[in-house]
Design goal:
With 290 residues, this protein is of the alpha/beta class. The chain contains eight helices and eleven strands. Helix content is 26%, strand content 22%. It is globular. The structure holds guanosine-5'-diphosphate (GDP) and zinc ion. Guanosine-5'-diphosphate is lined by residues 113-114, 116-117, 140-142, 165-171, 184-185, 187-188.
Length: 290
């Protein structure tokens, strides 16, 4: 048997990219269909070949991660795209996406696209997100800047873009891989089609290595679904201070002698990040059933 990864699924057939970089169109072994296994793009599989470019999926391997939107298995990384301008970056949305990425166990990096328009936004965001532990990459899909740094982050893993519409996600894919020529706005427009969409998600192969979902992730985001005490762990830069507060159960709001609040007041934790922690904590609290 041969190892591969499902990169597309159409009407009961699955396109499998093998470890030898072949694409093989496969159907599922009857046993898998009978077991009602839901196969996802991104699933690692074992196949046998039945003819030229054709084969059968024999086994599904265990998933490491599983996203709802886009419905892709084994995504390892989310690249959150914001524009330096037009539209202005939405830091609440950015932090919300990052908390979802942390909860799902994904690596995350921040891309500031349209950096041909202004450098000030990128500088401001670098000061917030680099100390928080997130790489920040400046790009311009239009001017072709920063693309090698993005290719480097994408190489050898499964990634998805996330971020609001209009920031240049489709343009970035086109700039990274001119052969795909997605229409600008296309990957965003797909979101709007919601349940009427017939095209399902695919993983695009990048010639520099790596796979990226052609549909951006984390659309229609709610508050993270987690425990009140877990929210603090979704902010990596809080970690050095957790356990240093006076009260073990400290949620870093109004409790006395709070190391996190002190760090925020001293500028060691960015003010916006601390504010958004409080915002998300309040939302999680409101969603509690009691
Ligand atoms: P998406 O909705 O995130 O996929 O964004 P699009 O790729 O459709 O881009 C939205 C608009 O921004 C289009 O008009 C693009 O031409 C423009 N755009 C994309 N990248 C850049 C960039 O790096 N610089 C500038 N100035 N405009 C860009
Ligand atoms: Zn505290």
């Amino acid at each position: 048997m041969e190892k591969g990864i499902i990169i597309r699924g159409v009407g009961g057939f699955y396109e499998v990219l093998t470890d030898t970089q072949d694409t093989v169109t496969c159907r599922l072994r009857g046993r898998l269909r009978l077991e009602g296994e839901r196969v996802l793009v991104g699933d690692r599989v074992l196949i046998t070949r039945t003819g030229a470019g054709e084969g059968v999926v024999e086994e599904l391997c265990a998933r490491k991660t599983q996203l709802q939107r886009p419905p892709v298995a084994n995504v390892e990384q989310v690249l959150v795209v914001m524009a330096a301008a037009d539209p202005e970056p939405d830091l609440i949305l950015l932090d919300r996406i990052l908390t979802h990425a942390e909860l799902a166990g994904l690596e995350a990096a921040v891309i500031i696209n349209k950096s041909d328009l202004t450098v000030e936004t990128a500088q401001r965001l670098e000061q917030i997100y680099q100390p928080a532990g997130y790489p920040v990459i400046r790009t311009s899909a239009k001017a072709g800047l920063g693309l090698d740094a993005v290719r480097e982050r994408l190489a050898g893993r499964i990634s998805t873009f996330a971020g609001p519409s209009g920031v240049g996600k489709s343009s970035l894919i086109n700039a990274l891989e001119p052969g795909y020529s997605l229409q600008t706005g296309e990957i965003s427009a797909k979101l709007g089609r919601g349940r009427h969409t017939t095209r399902s998600v695919s993983l695009l192969r990048l010639s520099s290595g790596g796979l990226i979902a052609d549909t951006p992730g984390f659309s229609r985001l709610d508050t993270v679904d987690t425990e009140l005490e877990a929210v603090q762990h979704l902010f990596p830069e809080f970690r050095p201070y957790l356990g240093e507060c006076k009260f073990r159960s400290c949620l870093h709001r109004n409790e006395p002698s709070c190391a996190v609040k002190d760090a925020a007041a001293a500028g060691k934790i960015a003010a916006s990040r601390y504010e958004h922690y409080l915002l998300f904590l309040g939302e999680v609290e409101e969603n509690q059933p009691y």
